[in-house]
Amino acid sequence: MNEETKKKINQKYEHKLAHGERFWPDSLYKDAVVALGIFLLLILLATFVGVPGEPKADPSDATYVPRPEWYFLFLFKFLAIYGQIPVLGRIEWIAAVLIPGIFLIVLTLLPFIEKKPDRHYSKRVLPISVMGIFVVSVVTLTLIADHPLKWDAQYRLTSLLQVISGLIIPTAAYLLLFLFSFLLKDQRASQGMVLTAGLSGVLMVGLTASVLFLAPVPEVEEVFVANTLPDRVVAGQDLYSIHCVECHGDDGSVTVIEGVEGLDGTVTSPISGMDVLYTFTDATIANIITYGQQDLGMPPFGKAAGGELSVSEIDYIVTFMRYSWDDRFEMPEIPELFPPLAEGEVPSYEVHIAPIAKRFCISCHREGKDNNNYLMTSYDEIIHSGDSAPNLVAGDAESILLKVIQEQNILDENGEEIIGVMPPKSVLKPDVVDVWVRWVMAGMPETVDGAAALSDIVEPVER
Ligand code: HEC
Ligand code: HEC
Questions:
Q1: Which ligand has the shortest distance to the CA of 272?
Q2: Could you tell which of 233, 258, 293 is best to mutate to test the pocket of ligand 1, judged by most ligand atoms within 8 Å of the CB?
Q3: Is 242 in the pocket of ligand 1 (CB under 6 A)?
Q4: Among 152, 162, 434, 443, which residue is least crowded by beta carbons within 10 Å?
């Protein structure tokens, strides 16, 4: 500081001392009044407006993803981006503690590093640039905090942009700033710094905008929400039929698993028995379904454990189990699986066969299961697939499928069984068998209209 500036400052100081306000008590008094005002405002806001709470914590829900408050999201994102650096990215504390720590220290020391007496912004380029880049970083990181960092084809571009704008640009900018401030002289240093800060700011904002603009829209899973109790029970029953029947049987009574690869002969307690239902709470059953009992042979089904069922789907299964088997619960009226047939009426795939197959057969007769390649998830599959195809021949009462659902197994020429009775662990009710038989004999129509055309409903005779 040269003599002249010192004198100027002293003069200003004397002037203020004579004419201006004093720190004590004038300024402090003003500060105190404003602080009190803000404090009262906060109390009023907290009392009458408040912050909405998050939903109550559910200890059995392992799918909850904790997220920081929005004002920490930038740090969260920074950590994620930093984690992409090879090797160094593994050392989390560098990004979580060291870098923010260094930043705070630099911020604290900035007034001591930059000791110019001037207050005009054109004379304080370094601190303003440092702070400017920091603020832009915080804002842009917060904006992209929700965007995934993944390196598959879909996300590669936006992930790269995020790394550039969140890590590479600010790092390079800070390095340049300090280089300029140490290596260049006054005028040129300021120019360099202004240019660096301006350019990096524009780049960061531009890249962030591109990330927001280019980011693939995440696929929203279509969720079926069953609201009423009967809906939930039916949804649960369908899911149970698809995922559980194979091992536990359609009424949950299986005690020895048969015909399931790797588990043949495994003993299990009947899950529809009161031993299980009285001793396990809903949450426990949901947990068993979610995580399985892998050492005992029960696979995990919850998405949280790599399975395919969501939390609500598992909830429907538990509801179905309770209302169907637990004698303390009364089963609500649930709609029938298919409308009863009138005499002479022909059933259709749409209305009758599809729900029956879904309820009793699809658990085994779908992709990835042991089933002689006989899939039953669509009209075409039911008619055409299978190692022994055709399993169904229109008008043929001796069709393989019709035999096996009527408790006749299929033998080869040596008398060895090649296809057992279906479903293997239970017997279809007569009205269900009747639907299959009528459908095949009438020509296996796919649609309701097709079935109606073939129907020969006996009209009541008028006298
Ligand atoms: C691949 C075969 C398999 C499938 C599929 C399967 N389980 Fe299991 N499950 C088992 C085995 C094995 C056990 C352990 C047997 C035991 O300890 O009684 C078990 C145990 C259970 C138990 C605990 C019984 C007890 O007494 O501890 C419940 C409840 C249960 N399963 C429900 C289900 C439900 C609901 C589904 C469908 C989402 C399902 N399971 C699907 C094989 C299976
Ligand atoms: C618990 C699993 C399971 C269920 C449930 C089940 N199947 Fe099967 N199904 C099999 C297996 C396994 C085979 C292979 C033959 C065998 O092992 O008997 C098979 C074979 C068949 C075949 C012969 C396929 C071919 O081309 O060789 C027909 C037809 C069939 N099932 C019909 C049905 C029908 C209809 C239902 C529903 C009412 C049903 N199955 C339910 C396990 C099942």
A1: 1
A2: 293
A3: no
A4: 152
- Closest residue CA from atom 21 of ligand 2: 371
Preceding amide of 25 cis, omega within 30: yes
In terms of Cα–Cα distance, which of 248, 302, 291 is closest to 423? 248
Q: How far is the C-alpha of 204 from the C-alpha of 207, rounded, in Å?
A: 5
* Residue that has been written with the tokens 């500060």 in this structure: 31
The residues, ordered by sequence, that sit 6+ positions from 248 with a Cβ below 8 Å of its Cβ are 254, 268, 270, 271
**What is the rounded distance in angstroms from the CA atom of residue 313 to the CA atom of residue 221?**
13
pLDDT in tens, 154-205: 889 999 999 999 999 999 999 999 898 888 877 888 889 999 999 999 999 9
CA distances from 461 to 341, 444, 457, 458 (A): 19, 28, 12, 8
**250 Cα nearest atom in ligand 2:** 5
Q: Residue 374 and residue 352: Cα distance in Å, rounded?
A: 19
For the stretch 153-170, what's the b/e string if a residue is b when 16 or more beta carbons lie within 10 angstroms of its beta carbon?
eebeebbbbbbbbbbebb
Which residue's alpha carbon is nearest to atom 21 within ligand 1?
A: 298
> 286 CB under 6 A from ligand 1?
no
What are the pLDDT digits (tens) for 255-306?
A: 888 777 788 888 888 999 988 899 899 989 999 999 988 788 889 998 878 8
Nearest CA to 405 among 388, 424, 386, 418? 424
d(CA 63, CA 363): 26
What residue owns the CA closest to ligand 1's atom 31? Answer: 298
Q: Work out which ligand 2 atom sits closest to the CA atom of 357.
A: 37
Q: Which residue puts its alpha carbon closest to atom 41 of ligand 1? A: 244
Distance CA 217, CA 89 (A): 28
Residue nearest to atom 14 of ligand 2 (CA): 371
